[in-house]
Amino acid sequence: MKLTQDQITELKKELVDDGVPVRFLLDGCALDITSGIKSTKRSNVMYHPTYWYFTKETAKKIADWLGAKPVWDK
């Protein structure tokens, strides 16, 4: 699952400078939201794509679109 070009265009308008770092998990694997590539299970978090410029609300919207779970880094 990955974002469509229309979704990416919409999200670019919602980018913020003070976003909350978020990763997206699908089937227990980290998901690259633009390519649809998933990490291997139990891979180290340092290799997971992390997105920095989304609000929590925007991250929830992305997760809903992709059927993924948003995970906010602390």
Characterise the protein shown here.
This protein has 74 residues and is α+β, with helices and mostly antiparallel strands. It has one domain. Helices cover 26% and strands 15% of the residues. It has two helices and three strands, in the order αββαβ. It has helices at residues 5-12, 56-66, and strands at residues 22-26, 29-30, 69-72. The protein has a three-stranded antiparallel sheet, with helices on one face. The longest helix has 11 residues, at 56-66. The termini are far apart.
Structure classification: alpha+beta
- Alpha-carbon distance between the two ends: 26 Å
| Strand elements, count | 3
As a whole number of angstroms, the C-alpha radius of gyration is 12 Å
- Spans of at least 5 consecutive residues whose pLDDT stays below 50 are none
Global mean pLDDT: 96
* Oligomeric state: single chain
Binned, the helix content reads 25-40%
Name the helix and strand elements from N-terminus to C-terminus, one letter apiece.
HEEHE
Shape: globular
Strand order of the largest sheet: 2-1-3
| Main sheet attributes: strand count, strand direction, barrel closure | 3 strands, antiparallel
Count of individual domains: 1
Strand content: 5-15%
Summed up, the helix count is: 2
Summary of the model, kept short:
With 74 residues, the chain is of the alpha+beta class.
Can you lay out the helices and strands and say which pair or pack?
Elements: H1 5-12, E1 22-26, E2 29-30, H2 56-66, E3 69-72
Antiparallel strand pairs: 1-2, 1-3
Characteristic terms for this protein:
3 strands; 2 helices; 74 residues; alpha+beta; 15% strand; globular
